[in-house]
Structure formats: structure tokens, C-alpha cells
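Re: folding output
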Amino acid sequence: MKVAVIMGSDSDWPILKPAVELLKQFGIESEVTVASAHRTPAKVREFVLAAPEKGIRVFIVAAGAAAHLAGVVASYTSLPVIGIPINATPLNGMDALLSTVQMPSGVPVATMAVNGAKNAAVFAAQIFAVTDEALAKKLQEYREKMAQDVDKKAARVAAQL
């Protein structure tokens, strides 16, 4: 199991780092790179076409503004592509969201929320968990811990009443 994490700029790394850390928690290896759909299109193409030989089975792709990167990646592969629109302009990421989600028929990109990197990691894990029972168990435990955390927060609020 390996995920490629591609970001359009190194300024996206603080948003993507928690996703890479979460993938590690699930036991999923990642390969991280910076590549631009507009400034380094040949690098994007080469990276995507070489990915299957490196064991990559899912792409997590983040970009802001015009945010064409996920769509370009999807144009070169039939592997799942998960797009993360990044809030990088005065439009608060809405430009990136629309660029990422509005793909033509036949070239899908699963689009997360603006800056939704952790959900991208969970979604990638869910894709792998379809055929990996141990990973499915880790995901279930992750959800149970989230529920416990909410219960603790509810108890803290109730204690203040």
C-alpha cells in the first residue's frame, strides 16, 4: 500500500503534513513531492506514469487557486485521485474547490473540503481497506477513538453548566 502525495507548492505542506502522518498511523507508506500542473507539467506526467512501478495505488493531490493539478494527474492515470483544494487566494479556496470538483465525465477526482487533507488520508485508507481487513480494523478503531473524544468534550461542556 502506497499513496503519492503531490502538492502544487511547498506552501501547501503544512496542510498536507497531518495527512501524511495519519497515513503512517494506518501503516500506509507515502511518497511526497512538489510538482506544478502549470510550471512543471512534464514532471507531473513523469511522476504519475512511473507511480504504478513504485507501488503507488492512490494519489492525494493538493493545489490552490486554479487548482488544475488533481485533474492533470487524473488525466494520466486510472488509479484513484483524491483532490484537496487549498485556500491560497482571497477567494478562500472556493476557486480551488470549483477547479478540483468540476471534472469532465470519465476523469473523476474525489474532492475533499478546502484544506481537507486529513479526510483525504482517511479516504485513501478506506480505499485500501476494501481488501485489507487489518486496515479496516484500524479505521474502525480510529472512528471509535473519535467518538470517545467527542464524549469527553461533551462531558467537559456539561461540567461547566
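--- second protein (sequence, then structure) ---
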Amino acid sequence: MKQLIVIVGPNAVGKSTTAEKIVELCPQSAFIDSDWCRVMNPFPLTDVTKETVIENMYSLLRNYLVCEEISTVVFVYSWHGERKEMYDRVIKQLRDDEIEFQENIVILKCSEAENRRRAIADNRDEERVERGIRNTFSFYDEYDYPCVDTTDMTIMEAVERVCEVTKLKLG
């Protein structure tokens, strides 16, 4: 059965970096960054743009999940605000369309100091760093999914830990 690994967590925690490395090391895999699904200028969060983002996420996930050459899809997403609701709609539609996959959700976390350091290293301005800490840093504490604290980990250690909790075999 196809595996959908969903990596969630605060802004700048390292979701995309981790996902890219997993896909690099895992044959027959694909990476979807949810950011791609909402690149608009400007991006007002309206009913119309939400539906566009939902359709974009659904289409990308569906296309990879039905592709015979792909066995693992790694999807990164931030659930704060209305985004968890949007994600749930996409997953429900995939299941309603009888697309078979095993969903494995993993939360990445790190210390607040490390989260700030990573956000700054990612060239985010101070306002964006503070907004990310305020809106996303503690948001995932209420969820009971496997969690990987990447504070003192290398990227390979984070990848190995995510693979361990999702039972994904590399290479």
C-alpha cells in the first residue's frame, strides 16, 4: 500500500529540508510542499482561494498516490489557522475517491531558541519570525501524533527518526 507521510510543525522547524532529504534517499518517492499550493500574489485567505488551495493539494496528492512508479509521498504542511480543516477535507476526498494509502503524520518540533535561529537563517524578517513563533510554535502541542524534537539533531538524524516512527525504509 502507498504511504503518505505528512510532516507538520511550526514555521521554520525544518519540514521541507527533512522531506527533501527523505525523498532523495527513498526510491520511488515524491515530495509535495504545501507552499506550492498557495503561491499567489497577493494571497488573501478567502473562500475562493481556500477552495483553490484545497483543489491544488488534492490534485498533487492524488496524482502521486495513483502513480504506479511512486510508493511513498512526503507532504509538508502547517496546520495553524484553518489549514487543518482544509487538510482534513483533502484527505476525506482522497478516501471518498477510494484512493488507497496509509497516512502517517509526524510532528517536527525544536526549542524556541532553535526555531528562531532557523527562521533567521532562512532569511525571515523579525516580524515574520515573531508571527511564526506566536501563531505556530505551540500549536501542535494539542495533537497526539508521533513527535520528533529536532533541536540537537543533524538533518540525517531527523530523517532517520521520521523514518523510524513511520516505518519507512530508505534506499
